[in-house]
Every structure is written in structure tokens, then in C-alpha cells.
Amino acid sequence: MPARTSPEELYRHSLCLLLDKDIPAWVGLWAEDGVMEFPFAPPGWPARLEGREAVAAYMRDYPDRIDLHDFPDLRIHRTERPETIVVEMRGVGSMVGTGAPFEMTYIAVVSVRDGRFTSYRDYWNPLAVHEYGLDFAGSGIR
Question: For residue 3, what pLDDT is reported?
């Protein structure tokens, strides 16, 4: 993405890449030193990923677990800081292993510099981990 890409444009593009299951391209939207945080991460799950490689490792198997179909109800809010947005959305799809429906509500605080994600705080529901039997980054929790 060009360095002049707005945070809103970058975020919308990132959702398209997730729907296309193009995780390498999605990871390519990250700054080398970008940080992804999960303030509500359950015990045994990573609460902070530092650097593009850590984000890549965490997301590598995402399409093997969740088949995302859409992000309805997307709302992007600007903040006083032009590089930071707050995002509200739902992700809907199905669980790859079982075909069971998947639905998760997200709120994210996202910052961008030079057309790349630098900070992404993902406030997702940790109770869904048990409901959906998810396991990311080798947490061993299901």
C-alpha cells in the first residue's frame, strides 16, 4: 500500500485480504516493528506480539481454522490523532474443522504509519475461544 494510504483505506484493504485468505499479503501490511495486542487474551494465549514476524506466526494457520465470509456492521471512527482509528465490526463465517457457524464481535484500536500497521489492539471476546475450540499460536488451550 502507498505511504499516503489512510488508516481507513488500509484497514478496509486488510479485511479484503482476510476474506481472500491471503495471510502473507495481510502480514505485508504491517510495519517491521508493528505490535499487535490482545488486552482480553485468556491465560495461555499471547497478549502481545512484537514485530511482523510474530504477527505472521500467529496468523499463519488462521484460514485453516476459520473460513471468514464477511465483516458486516463495519464502523470506522476517526480519532484526534489522524494515524489512529477505532473499528467496530463483526466477523462471520464457519469453523473449517466442523462447519459450525462462526461469529465474533471485534473492537480494535489501530495506528498506521507510512501505509503500514504499527499498533493494533484487538478487543475480542475471550469466551469464544472455548465456544469455538480455537487454538492459535500453539497456546494449547481449546
Answer: 66
